[in-house]
């Protein structure tokens, strides 16, 4: 009987350790995919706030602390004409490649700023599930009027320091 109790305790300890490891892995993956930290409403990997100016409207953009995002910051100020794709995103091919650290987010959120491949800058204005991999660069905080301001077709967006 004692051996069964000890065996059950050992098994319980193993299960608790593996659950804790799963939670830590999920948190790491959430940070890598740019998901906001539910407890604070922000991601711990954020470091810089910039703005995106679209048709005289200013949107606050939080930029993550990763290599590609830092390379993107080095290009600012940047005024680009972004084309529409699938009525849910605007895209622009950069002149130079950025470091690709792609992850599969499974879901992109309205306001996500990401890199597809190493050269395609993408700003999402709708939330949807995806099977594509992206390198997270940051996100627009105030997305209430984002889709309306971006409109259909191409649009000029200026990314600049605050």
Count of separate structural domains: 1
Largest sheet: 8 strands, antiparallel, barrel
Name the CATH architecture. Beta Barrel
What is the name of the CATH class?
A: Mainly Beta
Count of DSSP helices?
3
Indicate the low-confidence ranges by residue numbers. Answer: 8-12, 14-46
Helix content: 25-40%
What proportion strand?
Answer: 35-45%
Rg, rounded, reads 20 Å
Give me the count of strands: 10
User: Taking all residues together, what is the mean pLDDT?
Assistant: 82
Task: Give the helix/strand class.
Answer: alpha+beta
The sequence of SSEs as H and E is HEEHEEEEEEEHE
Write down the CATH topology. Answer: Cyclophilin
Strand order, main sheet: write it out: 1-2-9-6-7-4-3-10
| Tertiary shape | globular
Q: Give the termini separation.
A: 68 Å
Describe this structure in words.
The chain is of the alpha+beta class. It has a single domain, classed as Cyclophilin. 27% of the residues lie in helices and 35% in strands. The chain is built from three helices and ten strands; from the N terminus they run αββαβββββββαβ. The chain has an eight-stranded antiparallel barrel. The chain has a two-stranded antiparallel sheet with strand order 5-8. A hairpin with a 3-residue loop joins strand 3 and strand 4. The termini are far apart. About 23% of the residues have low confidence.
């Amino acid at each position: 009987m004692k051996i069964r109790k000890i065996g059950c305790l050992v098994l319980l300890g193993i299960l608790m350790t593996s659950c804790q490891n799963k939670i830590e892995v999920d948190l790491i993956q959430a940070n890598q995919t740019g998901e906001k930290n539910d407890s604070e409403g922000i991601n711990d990997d954020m470091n810089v706030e910039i703005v995106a100016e679209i048709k005289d409207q200013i949107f606050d953009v939080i930029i993550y602390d990763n290599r590609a995002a830092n390379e993107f910051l080095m290009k600012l100020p940047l005024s680009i004409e972004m084309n529409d794709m699938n009525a849910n995103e605007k895209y622009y091919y950069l002149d130079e490649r950025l470091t690709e650290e792609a992850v599969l987010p499974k879901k992109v959120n309205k306001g996500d700023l990401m890199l597809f491949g190493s050269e395609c800058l993408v700003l999402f204005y709708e939330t949807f599930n995806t099977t594509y991999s992206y390198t997270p660069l940051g996100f627009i905080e105030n997305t209430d009027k984002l889709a309306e301001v971006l409109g259909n077709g191409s649009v000029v967006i200026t990314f600049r320091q605050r």
